[in-house]
Amino acid sequence: MVALAFIFTTCSHCQDLTRLLGPLSREYALRGVQVLECAFNDDAQPNMAAFLQQFQPPFPVGWTSRAAAMAYLQRSILDTKPL
Question: What is the residue-averaged pLDDT of the chain?
Answer without folding.
Answer: 94
